[in-house]
Write a structure and sequence with these properties.
Length: 182
């Protein structure tokens, strides 16, 4: 069996190493990988966001299973693309991956399904006075595969200064102001 692990971070290195310990002894490929992963798997040099290129490489290499680690290629539909080519894949389809990849989409789905969730509003400017009392802020762009975090308990003035910086760097997941400091 030949397995292609997609990605180049610590998660993908752990997957590669776990596959190498398997009693089935699969041939392990990784793309794009990194120098550490190169000690444990043969690297293919396809960018993680090149969905068509990655699927073509899997087909060309005779891969039996593609394991996708990063969120971005999942949301972009890599699993769908390799499965259309008759290759098995481990990971959610693009539509399902959107639940994790887009906080706005996830909130919309939860609201439509009646799932209890924190009140929220998507914003893209510093002028979010009306949203501040809602408790949770999410950017409408919902960029994927960027570092993300939540700021809680910050006062309005702190949030007002942080929002443009964080939003422009595509690393904000949510900003939760302290109700006492609004």
């Amino acid at each position: 069996m030949r397995v292609l692990v997609v990605g180049g971070g610590g998660r993908e290195h752990a997957i590669v190493r776990a596959l190498r310990r398997s009693p089935k002894r699969p041939e392990v490929l990784c793309s794009p990988g990194n120098p550490g992963i190169a000690r444990d798997a043969r690297l293919l040099h396809v960018a993680v966001n090149d969905i068509a290129g990655m699927a073509a490489a899997a087909e060309r290499e005779g891969v039996d299973l593609v394991v996708v680690g990063p969120e971005a290629p999942l949301v972009a539909g890599l699993v769908d693309e390799v499965e259309q080519r008759g290759i098995s894949a481990f990971g959610p389809t693009g539509e399902v991956a959107r639940l994790e990849g887009s906080k706005v989409f996830a909130k919309e789905i939860m609201e439509a399904a009646g799932v209890a969730t924190a009140t929220w509003r998507a914003v893209d400017t510093v002028d979010w006075t009306a949203s501040a009392s809602l408790g949770s802020i999410a950017p409408p762009t919902a960029k994927v595969a960027a570092p993300s975090f939540t700021i809680t308990g910050a006062g309005y003035r702190v949030c007002q200064r942080l929002l443009p910086v964080l939003a422009s760097s595509a690393c904000i997941t949510s900003l939760v102001p302290s109700r006492a400091n609004m």
